[in-house]
Amino acid sequence: MKLFTQTMLAIVLSSILLTSCSQEPESLEISCADAQTAIEEGAYLIDVRTPQENAAEKLTNGTLIPLDNLESIKTTTIPQSSEIIAYCRSGNRSAQAQKLLTEYGYTKVKTLKGGITSCKF
């Protein structure tokens, strides 16, 4: 009986561990369509490219804060609890920005999937 109880306990614990490990983590990327909706609902859109890139092409309602100057966001009026969508040309710099913003205490930061090359609005 003791062996049966131990076996059943092991099966139950294994099932719990496998179920909790198989859950997908929340994506750090957001699609163009979902980004548009989020911005309409109050999310901040931040362009982390250079001023020259921003002058050549930009998304509507975006705020330019180049990756090299991203620490300046600490002095803005953007609350740390706000949803932020970072974008760049293709997604590399915005991923770096997402990491930095999280380190600065922002909790709802996503990157625009594919960057400006795959999204126009």
Task: Walk me through the structure.
By secondary structure, the protein is an alpha/beta fold. The chain has a single domain (26-118), classed as Rhodanese-like domain (Oxidized Rhodanese, domain 1). 39% of the residues lie in helices and 16% in strands. The protein contains four helices and five strands; from the N terminus they run αβαβαββαβ. Strand 4 (83-87), helix 4 and strand 5 (108-112) form a beta-alpha-beta unit. 25% of the residues are buried. The model is unreliable at 4-10 and 12-24 (pLDDT under 50).
Describe how the helices and strands are arranged:
Layout: H1 2-21, E1 29-30, H2 32-40, E2 44-47, H3 51-56, E3 62-64, E4 83-87, H4 92-103, E5 108-112
Parallel strand pairs: 1-5, 2-3, 2-4, 4-5
Strand order of the largest sheet: 1-5-4-2-3
Q: Could you give a short account of the major beta sheet?
A: 5 strands, parallel
Q: Can you write the helix and strand succession as a string? A: HEHEHEEHE
**What is the domain total for the residues?**
1
CATH level-4 homologous superfamily:
Rhodanese-like domain
